[in-house]
Amino acid sequence: MSSRLLYPLWLLSILLVTLGSLLPATSPVMHAIGRLPVGAKALHFCAYAWLALLALLAIKNRSLAVMAALAIVLLGVALEFGQKLVPGRGFEVRDMFINGAGVLTGIAIGMLSRRMVPVIGA
What we know:
By secondary structure, this protein is mainly alpha-helical. The protein is built from five helices and no strands.
């Protein structure tokens, strides 16, 4: 997949994580997510690993890609504080750490994949 497709996919993923994080607990989407056979913490971890990995794959400049991926940690912190304002949602410091661990994992996977496969479109 070319970086021309990965970059919009990354932005769309950021939008979806943001919207999902700020939906009220009573929304149909949150009810559907609650029925998934995976825990909320695992979803946090995977979502943030995905966002960081996509940053590493979509952005050609490695330093910029790592900085963009690390900025996802700030997004996670901001969204966690934003959940204080959303009905039925709560603020959890533990989620911030899980999000950060996901970002670090995504960066590690992205760095390994950049070494194994040349950067797309470079």
